[in-house]
């Protein structure tokens, strides 16, 4: 009941997510329309460029979320990193899958595809978010049929088909597509923000909200999906047996860790150093798994896999929980016959439990290791031989650097020609004559003679310290019981024995045997034990005066002390010549073709929206209407207008001017000073006589 409620709530949450994406698209379109409308309004002084910038920044975000929804809502497309297996190419595999599908009570898948991962899965490309039936596809990792026993492989196939019989593909498709859609949306926003600085300014809040939404969705769907895994385990145990299913779970977990180590420790370093890759990497991996020295590490991986807790983001329960549930199931009765006796009868130690044509592995290897820098493909057996040589002789480059450094520091090597150049000692000068000039004589090439010269000159400890300082941390102590402080000469003895072995291999009298857990093993010529050459080198390094005896042994084997190693052909496992300058390899992550196209698409989308909307907005803003202000009517004088009007006065043909009238204002009285009294001057002026 709780599981059903969680499933319904997850479906509702997924529907809400799709609705939020639609609302975001509408809101983004509304902002664009509002910006255009505002730019076309009369009286706008400047167009709203801030809104246009925000819309251009959100365009890749909105587009990425819409594309994620469309990609997850429709039926899943075929994976590009998989190879389809036909019935003619693998009839026994198809027959086994159909028989197991009949046993678990479901219809078989329509297609079987091989992948380059240690995993198996089933999908149903159903429409309507997986609610309707569709085409079924079984994905099978190529390392599984190459390394699992027949019983374990059938248990894995029965587990995957058990998802179909319990109708897990219905809710599983919805949960998977919902989680994939949320992850795809987050990835699209992260890639867009990483590709464009403008998008990065506005991508914080969408990423935060989407991350919280993803956590809630996974919290709702995780218990349901883990319960479905336990139900599929029970179906597989009913068909193949609880023991086979438990062994399959342990082996798959160990193989997954071993496959990652194979890629990281062998395949990738070999490709970077030599440019060589195997045409069938899965058979090379199977050779590693079947090696006797790998059995103990694989057992340790199986034990650690049981102790590992479940990943919070993984739909599978912890391995300990699954094994505990399988142990509770009843074991098959002793006299009970298997459902398919022919299918379970092959020998578990058979190399090909379900034979597949080699062309499938080769085709999948081409898909797995593709690109211009993938490297040159060679037969996988030849690649193993070159890998053994590369792992053995990679110590020679540090040895050449150490020899050169000690010679320069101590003055024990060959000096430049001049009046001050004198031999180090007369006996040593007689024993180590200068090599004759010729194509084989290289001034800076590593030779056995240069190493023995330093040993006879008493520079064994400086040479050992210089070599140990140049070795990687994992290669300083080839013998676990010894440490660099207790025995600093051990690595020097190993390097000298490798140098001698490289000369023997170059002569064709010896070869390197692959050792997956340590340095490669030298197989010397007939009549010599494998540890004899190592004993000779150790004696010459530790005991003074023993280099002459080593020279006699080498002369008996036909090895010239003065001859440098033959320059390896281009692309061989020898890599750069010891003493030569190695290629510089950058550790910066390379931008792949798809990533470069995504970066260009994000930048082009943001730039298109920004430039296009800016152009349209400026065009609307430039052609906007001028604002209209209310005008005061002009009243003109009309001669026909008579003040006061009259019966014969006609209407004026146009507005007439009227004199403005002002209100009467109160007159302010003015102050007048009194006038002086009048002066009569008549009595003063004499009057004329008549």
TrEMBL record:
It comes from the Bacteria. The chain crosses the membrane at residues 7-37, 49-70, 599-622. It is found in: Cell membrane. It is a multi-pass membrane protein. Residues 671-680 have a biased composition (Pro residues). Gene3D superfamilies: Metalloproteases ('zincins'), catalytic domain (3.30.2010.10). Keywords: Cell membrane, Hydrolase, Membrane, Metal-binding, Metalloprotease, Protease, Transmembrane, Transmembrane helix, Zinc. Residues 407-441, 467-487, 641-690 are annotated as: Disordered. The keyword Metal-binding applies. Residues 472-487 have a biased composition (Basic and acidic residues). Residues 92-327 form the Peptidase M48 domain. Residues 681-690 have a biased composition (Low complexity). Its cofactor is Zn(2+). InterPro entries: HtpX_protease, Peptidase_M48. PANTHER family: PROTEASE HTPX. This is Peptidase M48 domain-containing protein. It comes from Streptomyces mordarskii.
